[in-house]
Amino acid sequence: MDYDITAYDRPSVTADIVVFAARKSDGESYRHLSTPVLSVLLVKRTDDPFSGMLALPGGFCCREETIEETAERKLKEKTGISDLPLSLLCNLSRLGRDPRGWIISCCYWTLMEFSNSKIEKNAAWYEVELDEKNDVYTLKLTDDNGNIYRSEVRLNNSNELYNQSSEAEIPENSLAFDHAEIIVRAVLQLRNSLDKPFAAFRMLPEQFTLTELQQIYEMILDKKLLMANFRRKIAPYVEETGNIDSGAGHRPSKLFRKKNDVNSSI
Amino acid sequence: MDYDITAYDRPSVTADIVVFAARKSDGESYRHLSTPVLSVLLVKRTDDPFSGMLALPGGFCCREETIEETAERKLKEKTGISDLPLSLLCNLSRLGRDPRGWIISCCYWTLMEFSNSKIEKNAAWYEVELDEKNDVYTLKLTDDNGNIYRSEVRLNNSNELYNQSSEAEIPENSLAFDHAEIIVRAVLQLRNSLDKPFAAFRMLPEQFTLTELQQIYEMILDKKLLMANFRRKIAPYVEETGNIDSGAGHRPSKLFRKKNDVNSSI
DNA sequence: ACAAAAGTGTTCAATTTACACCCATGA
DNA sequence: TCATGGGTGTAAATTGAACACTTTTGT
Q1: Fewer CB within 10 Å of terminal CB in chain B, N or C?
Q2: What's the CA gap between B21 and B36, in Å, rounded?
Q3: Which among B213, B215, B208 is positioned nearest to B245, based on CA atoms?
Q4: Is residue B252 a contact partner of residue B245, using CB atoms and an 8 Å limit?
Q5: Which residues in chain A are classed under CATH 1.10.10.10?
Q6: Along the 266 residues of chain B, how does pLDDT read in single tens digits?
Q7: How far does Cα B240 stand from its chain's mean position?
């Protein structure tokens, strides 16, 4: 009856997670609002291969757990963050993508409120900028000290993203494995996720001003929106808390919250 | 340096593919148009476990190929069909989902034009009906001879679909493994795919009437659309071929084709 | 002739877009 | 006081939903 599955060669399977948050930049003066910048949570690798380089939090799947559970466990272990709903992004299984051998990566992505407090030592937030030109995506990551990590990711002939990842080919100050490709895919997915139920809420605290919400949209879509129209559009999804955010050098703003019946899954 | 990945327990990985097509039903009379029915391509299993039961085409990943290549190869081997663009649907890795052991399934889905001609012996099309009631999805599959295969799939507490799949628990005339769940997920995904670039074109021949296109939409959305409005909506995406489809007991209709610049990916 | 489908036009409502205008604050 | 952001109203443009009407065919 059953054939013996151990007779076949098997891959190792990893889960990697792209966590985005909106980090507040410094305001220019007492009058100006700060604007949020898109940030991704990365860890510095402590082991070979690519030791010392940046990578997505993630790791190998163990028996007795689902891939999603692996992702949650590894995210917790490597960054200290837990309880985030994960969405499937892609599976990467290209030959040679990991110098250690036949390793498949199941990639997930999620959004959270920015917080530096509860993060593990080797994890940190990196500002994300993504540009596209002639089918070449340029991913620019910037750390707290202004150090820049730049990666290029191309579109191959079947319209799928890929980038090279052998240790020899990866430039200094770039990302380990094909993790640059994964982040690019995640940013593209993020940009396409704003039409549906309101994922943006996940990047804000429970109470927020409508301008803060609008800024999240503007950050992700990379364009300015008109305030009056934005407010009409999101009105059905938010409700007033009765609280006021004051002391900002201009008229205080009402604090809102997401309505209970609004699904913010992605 | 590198730690030895073979020291860790590894799962087997399979690719499973949900292929949908629109099968033309018989017209009632010389006057009436036939209406398409949503159909899924399944194979009868020839090996244990679940020998003799229906299953999605698919199989184990081999070294030297990506999961997408596995999916394409297995689809070709088991059904004779090739060259379909595949979209990732989900990864299933629940403990016990396959009685043979630790087996992860990477599931893909796609659309094609209905064709019975070039299909392998063990493969066949099954009409798909999906109903939902109190978070329970009922999947009803019907073969050419009117035999019915019915499966129930529930939503668990974290809003993820699951159904049981131990050999003992699966009723007769149902699907092997958790393949009913995969098909349900694929149908839900299909229903959500019609707003974006026009996937429906993939279920039609190169030239088609606008009524045929509308019928695909009605089949997937499971509701009637108004002809005038539908035509206005899809007008930017189609162009006339100059050909006419006549001989149908009523006014002949113009044949259209998808405009070249319309992306029909899903 | 006529049932069925092909195809077009028109109306009213809803939504989107753009812009103008007033309000409240703290240094 | 005044720059800055908070907040609202309104008119024009676009899109969507509903429906009426005409055309063309094979039997």
Answers
A1: N
A2: 9
A3: B208
A4: yes
A5: 196-258
A6: 445 667 789 999 999 999 999 999 887 788 899 999 999 999 999 988 999 999 999 999 999 999 999 999 999 999 999 999 999 999 999 999 999 999 999 999 999 999 877 899 999 999 999 999 988 999 999 999 999 999 999 866 454 556 655 555 666 678 999 999 999 999 999 998 887 667 899 999 999 999 999 999 999 999 999 999 999 999 999 999 999 999 888 999 999 999 988 877 77
A7: 29
| Contact state of B2 with A94 under an 8 Å Cβ cutoff | no
* Residue closest to sugar C1' of D7 by CA: A228
B99 with A2: Cβ contact below 8 A: yes
Please state, in angstroms and rounded to a whole number, the distance separating the CA atoms of residues A28 and B245: 67
Residues 6+ apart with CB under 8 A from B21: B39, B41, B111, B112, B113, B114, B115, B125, B203
What is residue A192's DSSP assignment? T
Residue A197 touches chain B, beta carbons under 8 Å: no
3-state secondary structure at position A72: helix
Q: Tell me, in Å, how far CA of B250 is from C1' of C2?
A: 11
CA nearest neighbour of B203 among B40, B30, B68: B40
Q: Where in chain A is the domain with CATH 3.90.79.10?
A: 10-193
Strands A12-24 and A36-44: antiparallel
Which protein residues have their Cβ less than 7 angstroms from some atom of strand C?
Answer: A 30, 226-229, 232-233, 246-252; B 29, 31-33, 209-211, 227-228, 231, 248-254
| Size of chain A in residues | 266
Residues of A in contact with B47 (CB under 8 A): 3
Report chain B residues whose CB lies below 8 A from the CB of A93.
61, 66-68
Query: Cβ of B61 and A103 within 8 Å?
Result: no
In this structure, which topology does domain B10-193 adopt according to CATH? Nucleoside Triphosphate Pyrophosphohydrolase (3.90.79)
- Selected from 3.90.940.10, 2.60.120.20, 1.10.10.10, 3.40.50.1820, the CATH number assigned to the domain covering B196-258 reads 1.10.10.10
Strand D nucleotides within 7 Å of a protein CB: 3-10, 16-20, 23-27
Locate tokens 């399944």: which residue? B42
